[in-house]
Amino acid sequence: MHLSTLVAYAASFALLSTTCAAANPPTNVHHGMEKIRGTVSTSDPFGGHLDVRTGTSTFRSFHLGRSVQYAGAALGTVADIAPGKRLSIVSVPDGAVNRALEVVVLAESLRGAGEGNYGWAVLSQHGISSLRNGTVIADPSTMLHANTHAVAGATLRTITLLSQDGARKYVIPANVPVVLVSPGDKGSITAHAQVVVVGQVPDNHEALYVIVGKRGDKLPM
């Protein structure tokens, strides 16, 4: 799986923990992977070891092999969503368009791979969500500045996302979580940094991907 797609999968894990009904307990395991979120406790990334504090007194340890991919992430705003930007959007159907639940804005260097629509198939109070990677296009009918309107007291914006399998329109609520993602390296893993680690179940002590928060940002991923 390409890094850009996996980053979006990691981000959308948050939807499981925040939108699942009480009758369906949240899980951090999906699509054969487990996401662990926390802060770096101790690390020797160049020696292949990472300890993550996941709670007041709980820790998880990971081996960092040669195949691990790294990314850096920071909080963004809807102002970062503009024509030409590469996005990964987790969304649910909303009439003739799709309503975004979370948006990942990808760095230019992550453009061109993993484009398309992925069946995320998570049933929540919002419906069944999906994941799509593509590029925002300057569609006159859905330009950000031309299609801003208020619905039920919330400001919404509409964009058109183009990928290899065509174009699709998305409604972007003003309060949607936005994360800016760029390639990273193991040198960015420092004490107390927030991280999201994805491991393959059942061998989840072997890290596959590590996303490191920049500037001390508390990520919604």
Main traits of this protein?
mainly beta; single chain; five-stranded mixed β-barrel; 15 strands
Folded structure, characterized:
The chain has one helix at residues 3-19, and strands at residues 29-30, 33-44, 49-53, 59-63, 69-75, 86-94, 97-106, 116-124, 127-137, 149-151, 154-163, 166-173, 178-183, 194-200, 207-213. A five-stranded mixed beta barrel has the order 6-7-12-11-9. It is mainly beta and 221 residues long. The chain contains one helix and 15 strands; from the N terminus they run αβββββββββββββββ. The chain starts with a helix and ends in an 8-residue tail after the last strand. Residues 12-27 and 143-154 have low confidence and may be disordered. The chain is elongated and about 50 Å long.
In a few lines, what is going on in this structure?
The protein is 8% helix and 50% strand.
Q: What sequence of helices (H) and strands (E) makes up the elements?
A: HEEEEEEEEEEEEEEE
**Whole-number average pLDDT?**
75
In spatial order, strands of the major sheet run: 6-7-12-11-9
Task: Count helical runs.
Answer: 1
Strand content: over 45%
Give the overall form: elongated
Question: Distance between the terminal alpha carbons, to the nearest Å?
Answer: 18 Å
Quickly give the structural class.
Answer: mainly beta
Helix content: under 10%
Based on CA atoms alone, the radius of gyration comes out at: 17 Å
Low-confidence parts: 12-27, 143-154
Number of strands: 15
Largest sheet: 5 strands, mixed, barrel
